[in-house]
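Example: VanZ-like domain-containing protein.
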Amino acid sequence: MTDPMASQIWRGLVIMVILGLGGIMAFASPFGWPIRDYDRYPHFVTFATISLLSVIAWPRAALNHLLIGLAVLAGFTELLQFTAGISRMPSWSDFGFNICGIAAMLGVIAALRAKFRS
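Written out as structure tokens, the predicted fold is:
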């Protein structure tokens, strides 16, 4: 397997994981979770993880481009909750925690990049 082919496979797998995590956040019912009263924290952690995976898969991508793309994904997961038949409702606070998770992880990555470049 050539190096470009391996990187394409790796990035494809990362995209599937990212979309899977986004789908779980969009459609999973928080009822019955042991963290039901703390529904915002899984949003933060999930999107921080998605951000880390994105940086690993696209290490040369500008962080502001990743921020925009991941913010669109975060908004899309909330819009998917308008789908009939699921027990979730879209929420601005969920979207806010999604964005906070993205920004926190990308901020850490930016700080690490700055530290190791100098």
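The chain has one domain: 4-116.
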